[in-house]
Write a structure and sequence with these properties.
Helices cover 57% and strands 0% of the residues. The chain is mostly helical. The protein has a single domain, classed as 434 Repressor (Amino-terminal Domain), CATH 1.10.260.40. It comes from Sphingomonas sediminicola.
């Protein structure tokens, strides 16, 4: 166990990390996607920008962006505590979704993943979004040496 804890902060109670072996991370990506989707929708549902959420939680904007957009990002325990406080949800369950702890009851993880899949927006792109996408496609489509 000491070998698995190398490089982690020492903590007890909610701040203690349950080391997760590297080979057991495939489910973590799905649950982190659900965590990111939850944070994004909860933030947007309250009419908050990422900057506003960063101010309220006293968390770096980059950390919040990583949570919302990067399934491989392992969030900081303090960040999850702050998000749980702002959104009125269980810190334990956010930690389970993040992969920092192993949930004993996987029902809420499965439900969160299902929720994330069902909450994907199918709204058409705005004119501005379409123009940005077209510009990005043009840049990505350019051939090397042209």
């Amino acid at each position: 166990m000491a070998h698995l804890e190398i490089g982690h902060e020492v903590g007890a109670g909610l701040t203690a990390i349950d080391p997760v072996p590297d080979e057991d991370t495939e489910g973590s990506d799905e649950s982190r996607l659900a965590l990111g989707r939850f944070v994004s929708l909860a933030r947007r549902g309250r009419g908050m920008s990422i900057d506003t959420l960063a101010e309220l939680t006293e968390v770096d904007v980059g950390e919040l962006l990583s949570i919302e957009r990067d399934a491989h990002h392992l969030p900081d325990t303090r960040t999850l505590y702050q998000l749980a406080q702002i959104f009125g949800v269980s810190q334990h369950k956010l930690m389970g979704l993040s992969g920092l702890t192993r949930p004993k009851d996987l029902k809420y993880v499965d439900e969160a993943i299902r929720y994330a899949a069902l909450s994907e927006s199918v709204a058409r792109l705005t004119k501005e979004e379409q123009a940005a996408l077209d510009g990005l496609i043009a840049v990505l489509s350019e051939r090397k040496g042209k």
